[in-house]
Amino acid sequence: MATAPVVPTAAVLSHETLELHLRHTFTISRSSEDVAKTLLLRLEVGGITAYGESSPVGRYEETVEQVARQIDAMHLGDADFWFFDEIIERLPRDARAARCGIDLVLHDLAGKRLGVPVYRLLGLDPGCAALTSFTIGIADLPQTIEKTREARDLPVLKVKLGSGKEVETLEAIRSIYTGTVRLDANEGWNAEQAAKILAELGRFDIEFCEQPIPAGHPEQLRFVRERSPVPIVADEDCRTLDDVALLAGCVDGINIKLVKCGGMREAVRMIHAARALGMKVMIGCMIESSVLCTAAAQLTPLVDYADLDGPLLITDDPFVGVSYDAGRLRLPPLAGLGVMPRTLR
Are residues 84 and 163 in the same domain? Predict the structure, then answer.
């Protein structure tokens, strides 16, 4: 008996720009912002509304407007939404931010169709979700102390550096904070500066430093790592799976961000590749709502470190998703990504 062909379910894919306002001006070595824009995606199919989000990174010359155009150009009339890779490949390989948004929508839809959270689809234990760090952006010393006091009860801080006064900044923070401290220079130093500065900062009991030098020079990361008492983690140098092998032996770990790599599927591939090469793994975020941060949090049972504080840095998150229990990520038990509009809560 012949099997009837599968008829694709009619679907409507839409998007809107979110403007997320920060609690404090967020400054890193190369930029500052008070408002961050992300793109929220909605896929309506078979009576289900699935959500995704993309927070394009200017560092990689991606914008919300560009991602919106790429999404609008997609043809989904014949799509079977169970075939994740086939749909994602309808976007250009270098359209990482757009691919991320679509990847999240597909995971949310699949979980909702099956009535299970995404972490259960992946066979992951939500009780093993990681602690997240909370970011202290670059500021003058009084502001840095104020922000540190606000976060002093959290177990892990990530301190942005790269504009000078590194020693003074760490002295101020360590005068009032005894928890775990991570550093992130966002490409702010050259190799010689990084080796010298990290040698000075080692006395402050630093867990690791992210991307101390400009990306594109793995051998210089190796130079820094060999001279630094502080472990080195690549961020801007590690965008996709193709970058992971190039960093083996040059760094102690990598920082994966869903919007950098193209979504959850690519992130899982990168995690396993890094593990095979003996590297630690962190999963991080940009300034983004609970949609994108909750998707990343679903993968934290697979990683060593998390930096998923996006919703904590903004005042107007329109969604509810992952929650924070003294820095511990608590994954929502709802189907799919587990997020819902705050107005429906």
Answer: no
Strand partners, 13: 43
pTM for the model stands at: 0.93
User: C-alpha 284: how far from its chain's center?
Assistant: 3
Q: Are the beta carbons of 186 and 59 closer than 8 angstroms?
A: no
Cα–Cα distance for residue pair 303/193, rounded to 1 Å? 30
The last residue of a domain, from among 72, 93, 115: 115
Three-state secondary structure readout of 15-64: EEEEEEEEEEEEEECCEEEEEEEEEEEEEEECCEEEEEEECCCHHHCCCH
Q: By C-alpha distance, which of 273, 321, 313, 269 is closest to 295?
A: 321
The phi, psi pair for 294, rounded to 5°, reads -70, -35
Q: What angle do CA 233, 265, 300 make, to 5 degrees?
A: 50
Same structural domain, 153 and 293: yes
Q: Verify that 36 and 162 share a domain, yes or no.
A: no
As a whole number of angstroms, the distance between CA 259 and CA 146 comes to 31
Tokens representing 43? Answer: 């896929």
- Say whether both 294 and 267 belong to one domain: yes
Q: How far apart are CA 103 and CA 118, in angstroms?
A: 12
Nearest of 300, 266, 296 to residue 281 by alpha carbon: 300
DSSP symbol at 256: E
Output DSSP code: residue 110: H
159-162 contacts, C-beta under 8 A, 24 or more apart: 159/135, 159/183, 159/184, 160/27, 160/28, 160/29, 160/135, 160/136, 160/184, 160/185, 160/186, 161/29, 161/185, 161/188, 161/197, 162/28, 162/29, 162/30, 162/138, 162/186, 162/187, 162/188, 162/189
Residues 182/208, Cβ–Cβ less than 8 Å: yes
Question: How far is the C-alpha of 187 from the C-alpha of 30, rounded, in Å?
Answer: 8
How far apart are the C-alpha atoms of 137 and 162, rounded to whole Å?
11
At 23-82, the pLDDT tens digits run 888 877 766 789 999 999 999 999 999 999 999 998 889 999 999 999 999 989 899 999
Residues 161 and 292 in one domain: yes
- The model's confidence at residue 124, banded by pLDDT at 50, 70 and 90, is very high
Residue 134, beta-bridge partner list? 157
- Total count of domains within the chain: 2
